[in-house]
Design goal:
The chain is 16% helix and 27% strand. The chain contains twelve helices and 45 strands. The strands form twelve sheets. It has an eight-stranded mixed β-sheet, sandwiched between helices. A five-stranded mixed β-sheet has the order 32-33-34-35-39, with no helix packed on it. It starts with 6 loop residues before the first helix and ends in a 27-residue tail after the last strand.
Length: 756
C-alpha cells in the first residue's frame, strides 16, 4: 500500500513531466499548462482524455490510487441499473490483479476502487465511464451575526415574525457534535444520528466511529442511532468543528447561557460524522496538529445517500450543512461524483445542500464540492459587510453570510470564537429551516431566489467585477410565501380599498392618489405592483387617454408607498385605448409594466420604469381581450409572463414565455359569468398565480388557486360595488391589521454580546 506523504501536496497542482499515454485504442495527451506542466488537481473530477491521462500518471507514480468512478448507464436512484453498472465495472477491473472495488453505493451510479495505472487506462476507455475522481481526504473548511442577517432584530426579525425553524431539522455533515452541550440540549434527533468513517492503510486513516467500525462496502453507515454522530475525540485537531457549526445553525440560549441563539433556534439537529483520523506528516504538512480529522469524498457521498434514501423519508429536513472541501474551481464542477445525490436531494426531496466556498482567499474561484451547480455555495463576510480576506468567491457563488469572529459551542460544554466560510455556511443552512417553517412546500430554487433578492449586494474586491448578495433573513422571510389578497379601486371616491385577507369585510388600508382625473373626461385605470422589490405591492394609475381625443394616453403614475403615496415613477408607454399589465418579466424581484392593445392583440413589455421603447413585443389574444400577467407554472426563479382574459367567454389564456413572438396559450381555463372582471393573484402563497373574477352586479369575488383548471372557485367573498375595479396584491409585511407595523407575534430577541 502506498502512503501519501503530504495532504498539502494533494491540494496543490500536481506537477509531472510532459508525456503521451497510449490507451487501448486511444492516444491521450496530458493536460497542458504554461511551462509544459500538467494542470491536474488531485480530488477534482476529470472527464476528458487529458484528465484521464493525468490520473493514469498519478497511478503510475504512486502504484495504487483510490478513485471514485462515475458511470452513465443508470440515473441516480435506479437501484437495479445502478447495481448492474457497478457489477459491470467490477468486471472491467479484472484486467488488473491489483485493482479492486472497495465501495459501492445504493443510489449513486458510481463505485470506489483502488486502481493501478492499467485499471485507470481500462476505465478511461470504457464508454460507460463519465468521470473519475481521486478519493482524497479533505479538511474542514474552516452572534452579532444574527443581527446582521436579521434573525434576532427586535420587532422585525425572523424570530419576531414568528419563525425560528420549529418543525424542521438541519443535517450537519461534519466532525460530529456534542449533543449534550447545553447550547444543543434537546436538539438532536438521536435516532437519526450516523457515522461514516474509514480505516484505510494506504493513507493511512482510522475510523473515529464510536463502535470502531468503518463505512460499509455498500456505503451503509458504520454506526447509527444515539451517540453515532458524537464529535470525534477532542484531542484530534478539527474535532471541535462540527459542534461549533451546529451551534451556529440551531443553538438555543438557556439560563446562564451565552446570551444569544443559533439562527434556527427552534429547529432540530441531525449530526452525521463523516471524518476519519490521520496522523503525522499527513496533518502537519497541511498546517494541522497530529492527529487530525479529514474526510474522504466517498464518505460524504455515502452520507448524502443515507440522507436521501433513509432519513428524508422519516424527518422534515430543510438543509444539509457541509463545511468542508478543497481545490480551486473557477467554474462549476459538475462532473464531481457528489452531484447526482445533491441534484436529487434538491429536486426530489426539496433539501438544500449548503456548502462552504473555502478559505484560500481566491477572488475568482471556490473549493469543491461547493462549485457543484445544484449546491448552495456560501462565502464569508464580516459584520461590516466586507468580504472576509480568507473567503473564496467567484461569480457563480450563491450567497454570502457572516463568518468572522463567530462565537458558538465547542465540545466539553464550552464556547469559542472561530472565523471561516465554515461559520458562514450554517447561517444559511439555519436560515433554510426558518424559511421552510413558513412555506414547507417551497423548492430549493425558490428559497434561494428569495434569499438572493433581499440581501445587500457585496462587490468583489481584488479581482473580476461581480457582486453577490449577503443573507438578509428578515426581509427574505417577510416576502416569502405570502398570499395575495383582494382590493378594489372605487373611481367615485378616487380611493383604493385594500384588504389583508380574502374574506368578506371592510378595508384594512385606504389609499388616495391625487393625479386621478375626472372619470367623465379621462380613462384612468388602477395598477398594482412591487416596483422597488421590497415585498409590498403598491398602487398607481395608467391613463388610457382623454375620452374625447385620446390626449395624455400612456401615462403611468406609480408610488412605492400605500401610506404616504407620492410620485415615485412617472413615464409613458402605449397608445390611446391600451390597457396596462404588470409583472416581473426578468426575475429580478421587481415588477415592471407592459400594455395590451385590444385592437390587435399586441403586447408591449418593458424591463424598467422609464419612458422608452418596449423590450419585447408579443401577439397573444383577440380584440377586446383584457391583458394580465402572472407566474402560471411557479417556475424558478419566478418570472411572470403575459396572459389575456376574454370577458365574452370568461376564459383565461396564459403563456409561459416572454419573447418577441406570436404565441399561443400554454394554459386556458374558465371562471365566472359573462361581464365579470378577470384578475389574478397568488391566493394560497405557493408562488403560483391563480385566477379570479369580480362580479360587479353583486360585489362577489371568486378565486381559484390553480390557473390551469376549470371548475368551481376555491374561495368567494363579498367586497365592492358596481363600478369598482378588482385588484390583488400583498399590501403589508405584517398582518392582520390595517398596515400595522407591529407583527402579530412578537418575541424580543436577546442582545448579542460577543464572547471574548
Amino acid at each position: 500500500m502506498i502512503r501519501i506523504k503530504s495532504f498539502r501536496s494533494l491540494l496543490l497542482l500536481a506537477v509531472v513531466a510532459v508525456m503521451v499515454i497510449t490507451l487501448v485504442g486511444v492516444t491521450v495527451p496530458t493536460a497542458q499548462a504554461q511551462g509544459g506542466e500538467t494542470n491536474y488537481q488531485p480530488g477534482t473530477a476529470v472527464s476528458t482524455a487529458s484528465g484521464y491521462a493525468a490520473l493514469a500518471q498519478r497511478a503510475a507514480q504512486n502504484g495504487i490510487i483510490r478513485v471514485i468512478v462515475s458511470f452513465g448507464s443508470a440515473a441516480y436512484g435506479q437501484l437495479a441499473a445502478v447495481q448492474a453498472g457497478q457489477q459491470r465495472l467490477a468486471n472491467v477491473l479484472a484486467i488488473s490483479s491489483n485493482a479492486r472495488v472497495v465501495r459501492e453505493f445504493t443510489h449513486t451510479p458510481a463505485i470506489v476502487a483502488e486502481l493501478d495505472q492499467a485499471a485507470v487506462i481500462a476505465l478511461a476507455n470504457d464508454p460507460d465511464v463519465t468521470a473519475m475522481q481521486e478519493d482524497i481526504p479533505v479538511p474542514p473548511s474552516d452572534l452579532s451575526s444574527n443581527n446582521v442577517i436579521g434573525a434576532s432584530t427586535v420587532a422585525t426579525g425572523a424570530w419576531a415574525q414568528g419563525y425560528d425553524g420549529t418543525g424542521w431539522a438541519v443535517v450537519v455533515l461534519d466532525t460530529g457534535a456534542q449533543s449534550s452541550h447545553p447550547f444543543l440540549s434537546g436538539k438532536t434527533i438521536t435516532a437519526a444520528e450516523a457515522c461514516f468513517s474509514t480505516t484505510n492503510g494506504a493513507y493511512p486513516s482510522t475510523t473515529v466511529c464510536p463502535n470502531g467500525q468503518s463505512t460499509g462496502g455498500s456505503g451503509q453507515p458504520a454506526q447509527t442511532g444515539s451517540g453515532a454522530g458524537v464529535n470525534c475525540p477532542i484531542t484530534t485537531d478539527g474535532c471541535a468543528h462540527g459542534t461549533h457549526v451546529s451551534g451556529i445553525a440551531v443553538g438555543k440560549n438557556y439560563g446562564g447561557g451565552p446570551g444569544y441563539d443559533g439562527v434556527a433556534r427552534g429547529a432540530s439537529l441531525i449530526p452525521i460524522q463523516v471524518f476519519s483520523q490521520f496522523t503525522g506528516a499527513n496533518c502537519t504538512n497541511s498546517g494541522y496538529s497530529s492527529p487530525c480529522a479529514f474526510s474522504f469524498n466517498s464518505d460524504t457521498i455515502a452520507a448524502l445517500d443515507y440522507v436521501y434514501g433513509t432519513l428524508s423519508l422519516s424527518y422534515n429536513i430543510a438543509s444539509i450543512n457541509m463545511s468542508l472541501g478543497g481545490g480551486q474551481n473557477t467554474g462549476y464542477c459538475d462532473t464531481d461524483a457528489r452531484k447526482p445525490v445533491i441534484d436529487n436531494l434538491r429536486n426530489n426531496r426539496k433539501i438544500a445542500t449548503v456548502i462552504a466556498a473555502g478559505n484560500n482567499g481566491y477572488n475568482n474561484a471556490i473549493s469543491s464540492p461547493g462549485c457543484i451547480s445544484s449546491a448552495v455555495s456560501v462565502g464569508a463576510t464580516t459584520d461590516a459587510d466586507a468580504i472576509a480576506s480568507y473567503s473564496n468567491r467567484y461569480a457563480n457563488l450563491s450567497i454570502y453570510a457572516p463568518g468572522s469572529s463567530v462565537d458558538s459551542s465547542v465540545p466539553n460544554s464550552t464556547y469559542a470564537n472561530y472565523n471561516g466560510t465554515s461559520m458562514a455556511t450554517p447561517h444559511v443552512a439555519g436560515a433554510w429551516a426558518v424559511m421552510k417553517q413558513k412555506f414547507p412546500a417551497a423548492s430549493v430554487s425558490k428559497i434561494l431566489y428569495v434569499l438572493r433578492q433581499k440581501g445587500p449586494l457585496i462587490a468583489n474586491t481584488g479581482g473580476p467585477v461581480f457582486s453577490i448578495p449577503r443573507l438578509q433573513l428578515d426581509k427574505s422571510l417577510a416576502d416569502f410565501g405570502n398570499k395575495d389578497t383582494v382590493g378594489i379601486y372605487r373611481p367615485s371616491l378616487n380611493m383604493f380599498l385594500l384588504r389583508n385577507s380574502n374574506t368578506t369585510g371592510v378595508a384594512d388600508i385606504n389609499v388616495s392618489l391625487a393625479p386621478h382625473m375626472d372619470p367623465n373626461e379621462y380613462r384612468d385605470v388602477p395598477v398594482v405592483g412591487d416596483w422597488n422589490g421590497d415585498g409590498i405591492d403598491t398602487v398607481g394609475f395608467y391613463r388610457r387617454g382623454r375620452l374625447s381625443d385620446g390626449a395624455g394616453a400612456g401615462l403611468f403614475w406609480l408610488t412605492d408607498s400605500n401610506t404616504a403615496p407620492q410620485q415615485d415613477y412617472y413615464f409613458v408607454l402605449g397608445n390611446p385605448g391600451d390597457t396596462p399589465i404588470v409583472g416581473d418579466w426578468n426575475g429580478d424581484g421587481k415588477d415592471t409594466v407592459g400594455v395590451f392593445r385590444p385592437s390587435n392583440g399586441l403586447i408591449y413589455i418593458k424591463n424598467n420604469l422609464t419612458t422608452g421603447v418596449a423590450d419585447y413585443t408579443m401577439v397573444l389574444g383577440n380584440p377586446n381581450d383584457v391583458g394580465l400577467a402572472g407566474n402560471w407554472d411557479n417556475d424558478d426563479p419566478g418570472t411572470d409572463s403575459p396572459g389575456v382574459f376574454r370577458p365574452s367567454l370568461v376564459r383565461f389564456y396564459m403563456t409561459n414565455q416572454v419573447c418577441n413572438c406570436v404565441i399561443g396559450a400554454d394554459y386556458t381555463s374558465v371562471l365566472g359569468n359573462p361581464g365579470d372582471q378577470g384578475f389574478v393573484g397568488d391566493w394560497n402563497g405557493d408562488g403560483r398565480s391563480g385566477t379570479g373574477v369580480y362580479r360587479t352586479s353583486n360585489g362577489i369575488t371568486y378565486l381559484r388557486n390553480d390557473p390551469t383548471t376549470t371548475g368551481f372557485s376555491d374561495y368567494n367573498l363579498v367586497y365592492g360595488i358596481d363600478g369598482d375595479y378588482a385588484l390583488a396584491g400583498h399590501w403589508s409585511l405584517f398582518g392582520p391589521g390595517a398596515g400595522s407595523s407591529t407583527p402579530s407575534q412578537v418575541e424580543l430577541a436577546p442582545t448579542f454580546v460577543p464572547k471574548n
